[in-house]
Amino acid sequence: MKKLLAIALVFVISIPAFSQLKFGLKAGAGTTGLTMETLKTITSGTTSYTVNALTDAKYGFHGGVFFRLTVFGIYLQPEFLLSTRTNEYTVKNVQTSASSIVKQNFNKLDIPVMVGLKLGPVRLNAGPAASLLINSPKALIDNTDFKNTYSKMTIGYQAGVGLDILKFLTIDLRYEGSLKKYQNQIQNLAGTTFNLDDRPNAFLLSLGLLF
Q1: Is residue 43 exposed (0-12), middle (13-18) or buried (19+ Cβ within 10 Å)?
Q2: In the chain, fewer beta carbons within 10 Å around the N or the C end?
Q3: Within-domain flag for 44
Q4: pTM
Q5: Closest by alpha carbon to 51, among 143, 189, 155?
Q6: d(Cα 46, Cα 41) in Å, to the nearest integer?
């Protein structure tokens, strides 16, 4: 037992000698796709609308700060990023047949926590990512019979590869997925909630500076 405690103590004491903590700034862009399985019909009394997601990729942007703690080639990298995302839906009034394309802009604070492995200049990483909605997107249905609600906090994940160049420049390419459906909901006057089974996903490319 004493030998195990001595080995553990030596390991803990030696970590600072083999570890490195860095601070960085990063910014980039991403393409966001939206998965919606079926056309939704939303009703309130005698008023009905159909809602369908446009699945073509839309561009968004992100930027913020990150910290990287590296120990024996393994690193932990929490990030705090302001980001934007745009969803588009086709909304049709069943009674009048009038339809329109509605864009919803989401401004978020994204907090991915990446765990990675350094293989020379190349990095492999993955981890959970929390997103906090910080704005009120435009309502999908412009009718007082309907109320839009949104999940303020969602949990997803990111995974990808990175490259460190000249010890101060960092490039990352990641895939981001959501673990939660029903981020977008509409409620009618009777209190019935209609879930839009949208699950956003994105490819993210960023460029950063390490200090």
Answers
A1: middle
A2: N
A3: yes
A4: 0.83
A5: 143
A6: 12
Torsion region of 142: left, alpha or beta (phi above 0 gives left; psi -120 to 50 gives alpha): beta
> Residue 27: which domain range?
19-210
| Domain contains 13 | no
CB 199 within 8 A of CB 155: no
What is residue 2's DSSP assignment?
A: H
Phi-psi region of 169 (alpha: psi -120 to 50; beta: other; left: phi over 0): beta
Query: Do 41 and 49 contact (CB within 8 A), yes or no?
Result: yes
For the chain, the domain total comes to: 1
Q: What is the CATH number of the domain that holds 123?
A: 2.40.160.20
Instruction: Tell me the per-residue pLDDT of 130-177, one tens digit each, with 9 for 90 and over.
Output: 999 999 888 889 899 999 888 888 899 999 999 999 989 999 999 999
